Amino acid sequence: MKPESLMMSYGYKPELSEGALKCPIFLTSTFVFKNAEEGKSFFEVAYGLREKKEGEELGLIYSRLNNPDLEILENRLTLWDNAEDAAVFESGMSAISTSMLTFLNPGDTLLYSNPLYGGSHHFINHVLTRFGINIIDFNSTESKEDIYQKIEDANLSGTVKMVYVETPGNPTNSLIDLKMCAELCSEFSTEERKSLLVVDNTYLGPLWQNPLNIGADLIVYSATKYIGGHSDVIAGAVLGSKELMAQIKGMRTFLGNMAGPWTGWLLMRSLETLKMRMETQAFNAERVAAFLNEHPKVEKVYYLGDLTPEKDPEAYRIYKSQCKSPGAMISFDIKGGEKEAFKFLNSLKLIKLAVSLGSTESLAEHPFTMTHADVSSDVKNSVSITEKLVRISIGVENPDDIISDINQALEKVKVPDFSFLQ
Ligand SMILES: *Cc1c(COP(=O)(O)O)cnc(C)c1O
């Protein structure tokens, strides 16, 4: 069966919960063992003192290690990405930082794509470097040869242990070729040391891009975005093979940054409508993009659905090979600069002025001064994040209402008149 058919029931047994149709919220810190022998047996598995028997699951011990709401949610999350296992965290950032801390050691090199989510960029540049991890970045315009040249120029002692990629890039939807990254990882790998490809799949996942099928080793999510989808919960997830996830779950146990049962329950509720929400958002986004493309006060639209083999052959090729939909994130350059962008944002009525994305309500923001304020001007310029750029996350409202809100806000903007220059 398809994931959307299983989201209401998969992994939950009503007979274990007094017949309750829905999985209750297991607000308990600890679990009672039937007898001392059972407690001993559960701990043997938890601490890896013995191999699991055929079909044996880790018994319920303590909610930092496991809890029914988290386990059922994790089982359901694996279905969308065809993953062996998943781990849920209290935020996207804890999913990301835990994945990095699990596999990177002093002297290792992390290769990452630009632009990254601001929090990930900060963690890599200001925290990992304190622990002796070398970092090298690349962007969507750089080829495999360019990347090899950069690594050679950096003259590092250690090997590249992890390639960390966000695609499509936030906020301009620039694409990184995941197949090329998977090739890099296999070239960096040796018998004893596997180099891992980790993909932040928040922007298109889990419906529209499935990196594990394209050679990624791990997927990370901010479940705060599409997966949660209602702007009412912060959460994150990591997905991958049983072997890698066992290491990540081990690290999570000791960092103690698992999600709580209430978060787990909220996300299970969200997953039931994930497909309908995301499909409606993508449907609306297509209409909004068409409107923006025709508007005289809009200079350029950054929307995956606009890629063509003639204008952008390379991006189009990557798009066709790894994305199943253009998604619901649109950015555009307004004619003018910060003043015009702010006037537009301040004039919106239905669309709220807020960061975050992927939720039922449409949100708009100004990346240059908000989500990407911390990124250096050089990097911002190299990836088209300028004062005139506005980002919109399209929600599930009626598309005509979204468009008329954008239209009335654009009407309030006075485009500077440069005609005297001609
Ligand atoms: C929001 C976001 C994150 C961080 O997730 P939190 O849930 O806010 O911790 C990471 N990556 C991307 C692409 C995001 O949009």
Automatic annotation (TrEMBL):
One of its GO terms (biological process) is transsulfuration. Gene3D superfamilies: Aspartate Aminotransferase, domain 1, Type I PLP-dependent aspartate aminotransferase-like (Major domain). InterPro entries: Cys/Met-Metab_PyrdxlP-dep_enz, Cys_met_metab_PP, PyrdxlP-dep_Trfase, PyrdxlP-dep_Trfase_major, PyrdxlP-dep_Trfase_small. Pfam families: Cys_Met_Meta_PP. Its cofactor is pyridoxal 5'-phosphate. Keywords: Pyridoxal phosphate. PROSITE patterns: CYS_MET_METAB_PP. GO terms for molecular function: carbon-sulfur lyase activity; pyridoxal phosphate binding. The keyword DNA damage does not apply. GO terms for cellular component: cytoplasm. The modification N6-(pyridoxal phosphate)lysine is found at residue 225. PANTHER family: METHIONINE GAMMA-LYASE, TRANS-SULFURATION ENZYME FAMILY MEMBER. Belongs to the trans-sulfuration enzymes family. This is Cystathionine gamma-synthase family protein. It comes from Marinigracilibium pacificum.
